[in-house]
Amino acid sequence: MQKRLLCFAVVLASVAVSVSAQRHSPQRFPNISGSDCVYMTSANTYSVPADTFLQYINDGANSMRWQLWGDIEFTDGTMSRRVTSAADFSVSVRSKVGKYGKGRIQFFCGDDDERWPCNPSTILDVYKSFRPDTSFTIAGLGCFKEGDTLVYSVDPILTTNINSCIGFDNYSWQYPQDLFEILYTSGDSSAYTVRAMREAKLSDEMFVWFGRKNRGDRAKALRSR
Question: Which are the contacts of 138, defined by CB distance < 8 A and separation ≥ 6?
Fold first, then answer.
């Protein structure tokens, strides 16, 4: 996937659009190779094909670099890395410690100047796979009667990286279909306001999955208690 952006420059009182020809990047960008699922305790390898980009290694006017966003990092703890040799076309990426939100891997190739973030690039979004921490809880009442308005929520751990502007992962809730009518949902689905359609039973259970890569696996669900 190739992403093209326009860089804008303000000159005195007029606005001029600066559109420079990308002479130092391929016409077609290949996808980043690697899994879109990152485990909390291990690292993944990601790469772009060297045969596509190797010709630009010795081009002094070219800038190639990897940039990470969100809750991931290179295994040395950094978030940005320039390509200076063929070995740099492959990188190792891991989850930030204690961070559960999604991440984005971006590879840039284009003119080597201060506008490098406007260079053509290819992007891969990655999501976390993990089991809920024992400290995670579902906040909300377990006893209620028909017609009660209730709020249930979990800690918004998937949206702590919202300032990265890469979007975020979401939560999946499961409960008996005849139990609630949904009134409101938070933007990241970490909280629900519902109306009880009947009284609660001892057999009723509520489950929450944190993130799309954990959805449907009961071993990775947070269970009400």
Answer: 152, 153, 154, 206, 208, 222, 224
How confident is the model at residue 37, as a pLDDT?
96
Burial of 139 (0-12, 13-18, 19+ CB in 10 A): exposed
What pTM, to 2 d.p., does this model score? Answer: 0.81
**Cα–Cα distance, 53 to 65 (Å, whole number):** 11
Q: Where do runs of H (alpha helix) occur along 17-121?
A: 50-53
Q: Distances from the Cα of 157 to the Cαs of 162, 185, 215, in angstroms?
A: 10, 16, 16
Tokens linked to 163: 């300032």
Paired with 128 in beta bridges are: 38
Torsion angle defined by CA atoms of residues 208, 181, 204 and 172, in that order, rounded to the nearest 10 degrees: -10
Q: What domains can be seen in the chain, in order of their start residue?
A: 7-129 (2.60.40), 149-223 (no CATH)
Q: Report the pLDDT value the prediction gives residue 172, as an integer from 0 to 100.
A: 93
Torsion of CA 131, 134, 138, 144, to 10 degrees: 130
User: Each residue of 54-83: pLDDT tens digit?
Assistant: 888 877 778 899 999 999 999 999 999 999
